[in-house]
């Protein structure tokens, strides 16, 4: 048994062969051991590593490292400790998500990648705050419709008077009659308070100023036309209340120093005239672009007992017996915490983001992590020639055990083929005899 120390804890791994490095990462139901048949075949041409993730097999059982991000970091630290600059990655189940996310974060370290039975679900999109409505009220998408697509198609338009709004103002960048009335009232209160203060100090300015507010005009004593810095006010809010950190100055050389009162006009309540952007419907129906709940993997599996999941999703037979011993080593907390941390993991998007050669392999009979339907498979592949999807009939969750020869041939072809889309399943290696 081989092991290295990472973060003051042991990480178990095994290695066979010489050549370019290939790293195999196991899934939720098992450990490095079910890679043994593949390692024996690959070791003829490659230096093949298989390691146990935190909480699985013979690696450390520290619950602080059971979340998904820590498993990705483990792969990064393992490659660094072993001096592996680049390696082809093959991941199964949880391992498929780990290697896909690692390849997105470190694309220069992964020349190609195979994801075996990865957990693919449609997750909620990354949200961005909506600060203004770019469409008139009459053109808003109807609530309950395809809101996500409608928002994506909205044209970018400049809001009226947007350039005239002070960048530090906390009001909405649209004016209404109610807002104007409140600003006028604030200005009038400001002027009256300055008059009373000036009368009490004997420095009343007598020049009249007409303050016009729509239809009515009131003649009031003239306030200063410039603020205390000598600059004209930049906005009605600044005219109503000067910044409190401005120093007091002499007025016309007088000994009395006037400090403007710190008055901030109240913000207007909700403005009914401003259209409101409808909320995006993140629970769309069973159609293209369907969005699942925050953690669809958790909702799908429902239980966290590794032995119970093994009995439920692996048919009885030799493979089940081989897996029992290794699955019994799994810390239940590692299974639970890794699954619960998947509310922020989107393996579908990670695979879509990769530009390296990728093969996604699925068992048609897999109930633990069901294969994608035709629509999701088409979204995964897109127009790329670097991603290939292989669906294995009569295979469940462990193709490396259920059909050893076919799986090993696929992995070898994947590692060597210039065009991964040409890789197809072959039942046996037939030797032609003339």
Question: How would you describe what is shown here?
Answer:
Helix 1 (36-42) crosses helix 14 (404-416) and helix 3 (94-105) packs across helix 11 (347-353). The protein contains 14 helices and twelve strands. Helix 1 links the parallel strand 3 and strand 4. 29% of the residues are buried. Helices cover 31% and strands 14% of the residues. It starts with a strand and ends in an 18-residue tail after the last helix. Mean pLDDT is 77; it is low at 127-174, 205-221, 245-257 and 274-292. The radius of gyration is 34 Å and the shape is elongated. With 434 residues, the protein is an alpha/beta fold. The protein has helices spanning 36-42, 68-81, 94-105, 147-152, 177-201, 236-240, 296-301, 306-313, 318-327, 332-340, 347-353, 374-381, 399-402, 404-416; strands spanning 2-6, 9-16, 20-25, 46-51, 88-92, 113-116, 208-213, 216-221, 249-250, 257-258, 358-363, 387-392. The strands form three sheets. It has an eight-stranded mixed β-sheet, with helices on both faces. A two-stranded antiparallel ribbon has the order 7-8. It folds into two domains: 2-124 and 284-422, Alpha/Beta hydrolase fold, catalytic domain (Rossmann fold, 3-Layer(aba) Sandwich), CATH 3.40.50; 130-278, no CATH class.
């Amino acid at each position: 048994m081989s092991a290295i120390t990472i973060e003051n804890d042991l990480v178990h791994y095994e290695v066979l062969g010489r050549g370019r490095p290939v790293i195999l990462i196991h899934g939720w139901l098992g450990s490095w051991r079910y890679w043994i048949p593949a390692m024996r075949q690959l070791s003829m041409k490659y230096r093949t590593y298989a390691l146990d993730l935190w909480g699985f097999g013979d690696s450390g059982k520290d619950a602080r490292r059971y979340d998904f991000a820590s498993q990705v970091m483990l792969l990064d630290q393992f490659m660094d400790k072993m001096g592996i600059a680049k390696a082809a990655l093959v991941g199964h189940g949880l391992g498929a998500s780990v290697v896909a996310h690692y390849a997105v974060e470190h694309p220069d370290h992964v020349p190609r990648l195979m994801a075996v039975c990865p957990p693919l679900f449609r997750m909620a999109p990354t949200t961005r705050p909506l600060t203004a409505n770019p469409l008139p009220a009459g053109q808003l998408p109807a609530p309950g419709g395809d809101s996500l697509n409608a928002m994506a198609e909205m044209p970018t338009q400049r809001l009226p008077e947007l350039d005239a709004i002070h960048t530090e103002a906390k009001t909405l960048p649209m004016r209404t009659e109610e807002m104007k009335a409140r600003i006028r009232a604030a200005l009038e209160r400001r002027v009256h308070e300055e008059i009373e203060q000036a009368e009490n100090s004997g420095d009343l300015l007598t020049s009249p100023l007409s303050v016009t507010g729509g239809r009515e005009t009131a003649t009031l004593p003239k306030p200063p036309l410039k603020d205390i810095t000598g600059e004209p006010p930049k906005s009605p809010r600044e005219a109503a209340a000067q910044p409190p950190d401005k120093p007091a100055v002499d007025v016309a050389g007088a000994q009395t120093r006037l400090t403007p009162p710190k008055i901030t006009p109240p913000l207007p309540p909700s403005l009914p005239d401003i259209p409101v952007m409808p909320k995006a419907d993140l629970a769309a129906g069973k159609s293209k672009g369907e969005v699942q709940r925050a953690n669809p993997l958790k909702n799908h599996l429902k239980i966290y007992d590794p032995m119970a999941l093994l009995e439920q999703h692996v048919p009885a037979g030799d493979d089940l017996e081989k897996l029992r011993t290794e699955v019994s080593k799994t810390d239940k907390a590692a299974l639970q915490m890794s699954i619960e941390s998947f509310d922020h993991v989107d393996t579908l998007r990670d695979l879509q983001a990769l530009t390296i050669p990728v093969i996604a392999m699925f068992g048609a009979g897999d109930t633990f992590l069901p294969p994608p339907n035709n629509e999701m498979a088409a979204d995964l592949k897109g127009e790329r020639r670097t991603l290939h999807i292989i669906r294995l009939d009569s295979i469940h969750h462990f193709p490396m055990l259920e059909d050893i020869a076919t799986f090993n041939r696929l992995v070898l072809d994947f590692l060597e083929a210039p065009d991964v889309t040409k890789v197809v399943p072959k039942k046996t290696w037939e030797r032609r005899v003339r």
